[in-house]
Amino acid sequence: MDSNDPVDSAELAHVRSYWANMWPNSPIYTFLLKDVELLAASHGKVLAKLKVQPAHMNSKGTLHGTVSACITDGFGGLAIASTGVKNTGLSTDIHTTYVSTARVGDMIIIEATASKVGRSLAFTNVEIRHEGGAVIATGTHTKYVKV
């Protein structure tokens, strides 16, 4: 999602509402992602940012892989939500590839895309990158949405 992509305020409002209802009911999202700022949404796409905090670090002082996996999980669902569905389904497969890392104070950008939302399955891609553009991690997330 870049400045050329259309941003739909109704879709952003729907995603914000979905997020506001989801994260308080999921302790891992509350702990790791409560400070996420949702920036934009259009059909099948969500853009957000997060300032890396000490709770996001591993024992080496860099972004813990669990945080990237949690972002892939949560934002895959938000990309599905941006298509207007009320139920974003259950995870059937999730994969995260770690390319680089981040440190406390870094601002990371999260871009999630629902590449297909079908009758039974939805497929998403998530990219986590530094504000300057360097990729930190990429993820794919498949969800069973016929529930």
From TrEMBL:
Sequence ranges assigned to domain Thioesterase in this UniProt record: 61-136
Q: Which domain of life is it from?
A: Eukaryota
Keyword field = Hydrolase
Indicate yes or no for the key word Cell division. no
| Family matches, as Pfam families | 4HBT
What GO molecular function annotations does the UniProt record carry, in alphabetical order?
A: fatty acyl-CoA hydrolase activity
Give the similarity note: Belongs to the thioesterase PaaI family.
Q: What is this protein called?
A: Thioesterase domain-containing protein
Name the species this protein comes from.
Heterodermia speciosa
